[in-house]
Design goal:
Length: 280
């Protein structure tokens, strides 16, 4: 466990200091970040003050603070969140952050009410067009290249469904030609739709790293795939000692009734840095 922490710390030690002509993106599954109010459209009774997790306002705001602390420590201009219940949860996160983030949220038609959200620095990314499917959110926009002073097109497909991701790729290329695409989500890396794209976390997986502890082993629950034209400078799993339970070696989850030490979700963020001076 100590060896893994040391390796991952070295991988992420420079994560908060991007240089000119590169930009960092992170994907963070916050693992069902609910508010305390019962939903009218799906069963979230466990996440209410009277429910199984005793999800009180105190516990909710404690988790908001812990999640915001992880986001602030990432200090990246583009951060994708999965597992937020609604826009009010995203607003509470953004209000708690020290960083100056704009956000984009859309309500999806998932069975458990979970949504994607995009946090972004408005001086580094400008959303242009947004589409949704049942379990997918697609945002195409422009990156600002500090080095060259140019705006460069980039699309993000956030999805857990390879079929939906493929449909979004077809729509994107019909609308925007050959716009570079980054796919993020919990899709199976062996899905045929992903074969033209580069699995940015493949090297980390070969080293035995992962962003979720499954049994006694780390596994890569989430992935980032990049367009072949994009130059990946570095990538990895973001981990800090305070995110890990010293007794179990697992990421700290907050959803156990009576837990004294609140966690942030139990799944570690993943990140990638790409060059911004592409398509020259």
């Amino acid at each position: 466990m100590k060896r893994l922490l040391a390796i991952l710390f070295l991988l992420t030690a420079t994560c908060s200091a991007p240089q000119a002509q590169q930009i960092g993106l992170a994907y963070f599954d916050v693992n069902r970040l609910h508010d305390t109010l019962p939903s009218l459209f799906y069963n979230d009774s466990a996440f209410t003050p009277e429910g199984r997790f005793a999800w009180t306002s105190r516990r909710y705001h404690s988790r908001i603070r812990h999640t915001a602390a992880v986001i602030d420590s990432l200090s990246l201009p583009l951060i994708v969140l999965w597992g937020v219940e609604n826009e009010e949860v995203v607003r509470d996160l953004v209000r708690t952050l020290n960083g100056d983030y704009s956000y984009l949220h859309r309500t999806l038609d998932t069975y458990d009410g979970m949504d994607f959200a995009l946090l972004y620095h408005a001086d580094r990314f400008s959303p242009h067009h947004v589409t949704t499917q049942r379990r997918s959110l697609t945002v195409d926009g422009f990156l600002l290249d500090f080095g060259g002073g140019r705006h460069r097109p980039l699309a993000l497909i956030l999805s857990h469904d390879p079929g939906e991701a493929r449909a979004e790729l077809i729509r994107l290329h019909r609308r925007n030609g050959d716009i570079p695409v980054i796919l993020m989500g919990g899709m199976d890396p062996s899905a045929a739709i992903l074969r033209p794209y580069h699995n940015a976390l493949h090297a980390a997986e070969l080293r035995g790293e992962g962003n979720r502890m499954w049994g006694k082993r780390w596994s890569m629950r989430d992935h980032i795939w990049t367009d072949p034209r994009l130059k990946v400078l570095r990538s990895g799993v973001y981990i800090r000692p305070y995110m890990i339970d010293s007794k179990t070696g697992k990421p700290i989850s907050p959803t156990l009734k009576g837990r004294k030490k609140e966690g942030f979700g139990g799944i570690l963020p993943i990140f990638v840095y790409i060059r911004t001076n592409y398509l020259q």
